[in-house]
Amino acid sequence: MKKRVLVVAYSQAGQLADVVRAVTAPLQTSNSIEVVFEWLQPQTPYPFPWPFLQFFNTFPETVHERPAPLHPLQVSTKENFDLVILAYSVWFLSPAQPMMAFLQSEQAANLLRDKPVITLIACRNMWLMAQEVMKEKLANLGARLIDNIALVDRAHPAATFISTPLWMLTGKRGPFLDGRVPAAGIPSADIAATARFGAAIAAQLPVRATEDNAPMLKGLGAVTINERLIASEKIARRSFVIWGKLLRALGDATSPLRQTVLCLYIIFLVAMILTVVPISAVIKRLLAPFTRARIAQQRQYFAQPSGEEWLP
């Protein structure tokens, strides 16, 4: 009997869809595995590229886990799967609203309960806090997180600070400024290389015991932890939660007062990125001799369950 894999994903710009196709290609060519895709469909589609204000106006509901509703799933909740892959992008250091809407649904409770899950992330560079939210949701649903894959834009953060917003707001990936700012997004070579994860899954899943919770992607470099961003992510996450609560108290997304205060927050956010992030990086470097052990523990924690290691 074939092993059955459910892939639940939402891709707005198309990049995550490319990653999903690359990862699952070896599964689809396996005679021992059946792959079922569930592409999440919001009842009101999110535009791409984003209108400027609408983009930022999604963050209060995103960080406070009040996602917009989805169309009903195509897959039946009575179906049984041997593995579930949840592919999501990161919005404001949280799982994107469509994935959060799925996780809050009764269908997710039925499909994920006591099932091994692999999370698959594609984002600019910050995903740690979003994955912490994801881990909590999966634990509450009774799912078993066995692996995590995270792909990021490997350009310098200063470059992606320009290129990623331009891509989101104009639909143009670049390069920009006569090539001084590289094209936004995950390099195509990195996307193609994710086939190694699918190959590892295809080799192990058909002979894997149902109750096995061991990672399948150890030694494949499934994630890379940028330790310089750990503190920045935590600070930014707190900011989003506090300001998101304030903005939600001012009304829904159409409220003129909320939109006015949101514009002030955007200015504050840009200032914070340009000041707090570099300052925290400098402080972290100065304190490095005294914090090596703690940083090593943090790296090990956030790298789990798949780890950063590349083994020959």
Structural features, described:
With 312 residues, the chain is of the alpha/beta class. The longest helix has 48 residues, at 256-303. Strand 3 (83-91) and strand 4 form a beta hairpin. Strands 1, 2, 3, 4, 5 and 6 form a 6-stranded mixed β-sheet that branches. The mean pLDDT is 94. The two termini are 32 Å apart. The protein contains 11 helices and 6 strands. The chain has 2 domains: 3-226, Flavodoxin domain (Rossmann fold); 228-299. Helix content is 48%, strand content 13%. The protein has helices at 15-28, 52-57, 59-63, 97-103, 106-112, 128-141, 157-170, 188-193, 195-204, 230-249, 256-303, and strands at residues 3-9, 33-39, 83-91, 94-95, 116-123, 144-152. Helix 1 packs parallel to helix 9 and helix 10 (230-249) packs antiparallel against helix 11 (256-303).
Q: Which percent bin holds the helix content? A: 40-55%
Classified in CATH, the superfamily of the largest domain is: Flavodoxin domain
The number of distinct helices, counting runs of at least 4 residues, comes to 11
* End-to-end gap: 32 Å
The general outline is globular
The percentage of residues in β strands lies in: 5-15%
CATH topology of the largest domain: Rossmann fold
Structural class of the helix and strand makeup? alpha/beta
Structurally, the number of domains stands at: 2
List keywords for this structure.
single chain; 312 residues; alpha/beta; Rossmann fold; 2 domains; 11 helices; 48% helix; 13% strand; globular
Could you outline the blueprint of secondary structure elements for this entry?
Elements: E1 3-9, H1 15-28, E2 33-39, H2 52-57, H3 59-63, E3 83-91, E4 94-95, H4 97-103, H5 106-112, E5 116-123, H6 128-141, E6 144-152, H7 157-170, H8 188-193, H9 195-204, H10 230-249, H11 256-303
Parallel strand pairs: 1-2, 1-3, 3-5, 5-6
Antiparallel strand pairs: 3-4
